[in-house]
Amino acid sequence: MTTEYTRKCFAIIAHPDAGKTTLTEKLLLFGGAIQQAGEVKARGERRRARSDWMKVEQERGISVASSVMTFEYEKTKFNLLDTPGHEDFSEDTYRVLTAVDSAVMVLDGAKGIETQTKKLFEVCRLRNIPILTFINKLDRESLDTFLLLDDIEKTLALDVTPASWPIGSGKEFMGCYDLINDQLILMNKNDKSHINSTIEVIKGIDDPKIDKLIPSYLAEKLREDIMMVKELCPAFDVQSYLDGSLTPVFFGSAMNNFGVKEVLDGLLKFAPTPRPAPTTTREVSPEEDKVSGFIFKIQANMDPKHRDRIAFMRICSGHFKRGMKLLQVRSGKDIKVPTPVMFMAQDRELAEDAFAGDIIGIPNHGQLRIGDTLSEGEKFSFTGIPTFAPELLKSVRATDPLKSKHLGNALQQIAEEGGASIFKPVIGSEWIVGVVGTLQFDVMADRIKNEFNIPVIFEQTQYYTARWVSCDDSAVMKKFMETNQGSIAEDHDSEVVFLARNAWHLSKIQEDFPKLVLNKTREQTFNK
Ligand code: G4P
Fold first, then answer.
1. Which residue range(s) make up the domain with 366?
2. Span 131-166, pLDDT tens digits
3. Of 9, 302, 447, 469, which has the fewest CB atoms closer than 10 Å, so is most exposed?
C-alpha cells in the first residue's frame, strides 16, 4: 500500500455489549478485509484457545488484548484500533486513543450513554477527537430517539445532529431517513446479503413515494419528527465535527448490517486524515519527509510460539521503509527495524512501507517502551500520551517460595508492557504491585500463572500510595534516602519510589524535604 491512499485512523468506543465487536466485524466485511460475518469472533476465539492466559477474557466476557485492523474502502486506507472494553483496562484504552485521529461511539439504543462510554468520551474530549455516533440495536425496543439525542447532548455536553432518523423501532424497525442525502434507506429483512438495505431516492420528506413504502402512521410520525429535528438540532457542520464539538448520529443495527455502510461513508467523507502531532519542541506535520512516531502500546506473547514482544508505533510523519534505522530519543540509541509488521484484519504481514496515520508493530526484546518517540535523528518527544498513577497497591508472592526468583522476571515483563507498576522495597524481599483497577490484579495473577507457571497471591500491604522521587539537590536526595529506607523502593527501571504508609506520612515527607519532587507517575519524572 502506498501514499496514494488517504489514511484514516480511528477507534470504536463503547460500553461493553453495545455492539463494538459486531460493528467492527461489519466494517471489515464492507471493507473486504474479511469474507464472512463471524470471522472476527471466530479468529478471536481461536486465538484465545491458543493462548491460555486469555482464558480470563473468556470467563469474564471481556476483551483484554487489543489490536489493529486495516481495511480499504473507496481508495482510503482505514486503520481501526481496537480498544479493550472493561473499565479496569482503561489504561490501555486511553493510550490507544492517543494514536487515533477520530472515533466512532457506539451506543445501545435501549440504554443510551453508559458509564464506560462517558469515560472514554472524556478521553477523546481531552484531545478534541471528532466523534461519529452510531446508535445500535434499533431492531430491538429502543429509547425514544429525541431522548437518546438529548441524553448525548446533556450527559456529554456535546452538540448533536442526527445524520439519519430511524423509522419505527423493535419489530417495527423499517430503516432510516437519511438526512444528509434526503433519501430513504430501508432494511431488507429477508436479504442476508452484504448490504442489507435498499436506497429509495425521494424528493424530500413530503414526497408521496414515502407513503407507498412505509405504513401511513410511520410516515406521519417521520414527517413530524423531521420537522422537529430541523427546528431543534443544529444543521450538520463538518468543521464543528472536526473540532470535536458536534457529533453526527447514525442509527442502525450492526447485527443486521443495517446502517453500517452509512457509518463507513460518514467516516470516508468527514473523518480527518492524520493531524499534526505536538511534541516537546514543535508540532510535527504528517506531510514532513522525515519519519517520526511514538509507541502507544506494548504487547508480549502475541504469538505464544515466539516469546516476542510487539511495540505498536503510530507513524506521525514521513515515509517509513522496512529496514530503516530510527533514533530512540529516550536512550539516544539507534534502533534498526528489519521486520516491522502490519495488521490486515487480524493477520500480520511484513510492512515494507508505512506513512503518517499507519500503525506498525515493531518486534523487540524490551528496548521499546510505551511513550517512546522514534525519529530520523531529531530530538523531540511526542506529548499527550496519558499516564496513570497506581491507585491500588498490594504485595504479591509466589505460593511456592522456590519460584520467588522467577516472579521478579514475570513482574518485570508486565511492568514493561505498561500492565501495572511494580516496586521492590530496598529492605525485605516482597514485591509491591500498583494498579489502576482491581481487576488488573486478577488478570496479572492469571497471566503469571499461565505464562510463567508461577501461582501467586496478592495480599494487603502496609503501603497506601507510591510516588516517584526526584530532586535537583543531591544532598537532599541522599538525606531523604538515608532517613527513610523502610519506605523506599525501586521500580522496574531502578527509579526511586517513595511508598507512603498513609496520607499523613506523604505530607510529612513533603514538609520535611520541600525540595523533593514527588510524582504520581513515572513519566512525570522522565519528562521533567
Ligand atoms: P461489544 O463488543 O460492544 O461488547 O458487543 P458485541 O458486538 O459483542 O455485541 C453484544 C451483543 O449484542 C451480542 O449478543 C451481539 O450479537 C448483540 N448485538 C450486536 N449488534 C446488535 C444489533 O444490531 N441488534 C441486536 N438485537 N443485537 C445486537 P450476544 O448474545 O452477547 O452474543 P452472540 O451470541 O450474538 O454473539
1. 277-375
2. 999 999 999 999 999 999 999 999 999 999 999 999
3. 302
